């Protein structure tokens, strides 16, 4: 079913719900056209299997390994911990997820010639060290968000990846979800006209899964998320999502202005932050203007992130012809609402789209110590399958970046983190 077909159907319904299961049309399978689609290996043609190395075996690594069970050609090959003392933890992870090997140092995994791609999910503060080691060994990699803790480190890592000509992607899995690809498609084909605003929020309460420190000077007394030395903060943990959502219609284009304000904890990390960007040109596709209407002169982007409270978590793209709302949880969504403006105010035709997760080829493994149905640490981690499928296709196509989230976008996102921090440290400045 073509996109036009889908839209026709949706337009025929004043308010309805469509379940999109068929993602086998060619444009959706060609990663070079900016879409991953889901996991129909048959239609994608023969894909060379990919041997994955996992550096670290913490919470998100467990979720990612589970999601690989949905991806054709994804082979869990080797899992490594930072320290040989922790080898038993890697061995337990190997057994739980069916990896071929477990090793007690990252370098052992990186020197293994059978490794095709590395999934790095160690702590933020070790990014430069770990990503540099991966790239120096000439390995392709998916680096969990954020790629780095600041723009300068990010630029150095991107330059190194480009000089080594290897694939590198910041793990902005959101961009690979079919709901988000569908939103992008609708923006790019002009369905909602010129995009004049984006509103996106993602806040969670870090105390739900970690402990607030009893001694602010001693990181061993609390969760790393609360310590800047360990790469904690709202901007680095939750912030990458609303920022990436805001960038979607504009790519890596430099905003005309960036303003930010937030709340900083005595430990030094920001607990919440609001960012407002303006762009000199609108996103998406401008539509012919009727006489007497305001031309699209630019766009305003409002973003909120937090680790001290949970927010609703939606992303809305506002265009001159309508709106697209990525429904909660917007960083790993399965639902999308499209509202096409009618005559006058408040007369939108509303359609909701739903994108069910693919089935795993073998049952998911429970989280350590969890019951049979307790299979993920984080919400909707099933959706890592979309990112892993995108990576498989990129590697098969010989790409060194994922079109869904380019390294230039990653760097733009990090430059916004830098700008927000600067603004928060100078609360009366206008920048
Ligand atoms: N895309 C997504 O949805 C998600 C992404 N993330 C990202 O994944 C990464 C890891 O998150 P998560 O798995 O929750 O984190 P964990 O707390 O589970 O830790 C991950 C790994 O980091 C290392 N580590 C943990 N504590 C310390 C410490 N105090 N000092 C040094 N190293 C330490 C360990 O590596 P080892 O095993 O080698 O000992 C550990 O396994 C982060 O970058 C986070 O932003 C997190 C959640 C979801
Ligand atoms: O990336 C993430 O980091 C923090 C988690 O709570 C969140 O669910 C996740 O996707």
Automatic annotation (TrEMBL):
- Entry EC no(s): 1.1.1.179
Enumerate the UniProt keywords alphabetically. Oxidoreductase, Signal
Catalytic activity from the UniProt record: D-xylose + NADP(+) = D-xylono-1,5-lactone + NADPH + H(+)
Q: A single Pfam family, by name? A: GFO_IDH_MocA
**InterPro entries membership:** Gfo/Idh/MocA-like_OxRdtase_N, Gfo/Idh/MocA_domain, NAD(P)-bd_dom_sf
* The protein's enzyme class: oxidoreductase
The protein, known as: D-xylose 1-dehydrogenase (NADP(+), D-xylono-1,5-lactone-forming)
Signal recorded as keyword: yes
The segment(s) forming the Gfo/Idh/MocA-like oxidoreductase N-terminal domain are 51-170
Q: In its keyword annotation, does this UniProt entry include Oxidoreductase? A: yes
Q: Which SUPFAM superfamilies match?
A: Glyceraldehyde-3-phosphate dehydrogenase-like, C-terminal domain, NAD(P)-binding Rossmann-fold domains
Which GO molecular function entries does the Swiss-Prot or TrEMBL record give? D-xylose 1-dehydrogenase (NADP+) activity; nucleotide binding
Give the top-rank taxon of the lineage listed in the UniProt record for this protein.
Eukaryota
Write down the species. Answer: Pelagomonas calceolata
Please give the family membership noted in the entry. Answer: Belongs to the Gfo/Idh/MocA family.
